[in-house]
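Why do we care about 3D structure at all? Because function follows from shape, and shape follows, mostly, from sequence. That is the central idea of this module. The next example makes it concrete: a single protein chain, its amino acid sequence, and then its structure expressed as tokens.
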Amino acid sequence: MIDGNLITSPGGLASYEASLYVVEKLFGKEQAMTIATALVFGPSNIAEAFPAP
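And the structure:
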């Protein structure tokens, strides 16, 4: 729920949605999508989200 500058969620996995919403508002949709992709714990997703320099 969003009420002014307060954002709440029921907890558990739903808290990821609220967290990604905050990331999107602060850093943009691309960064939120990068984090969302990395949250799927698999080697290909982690490598894609955090490429080696």
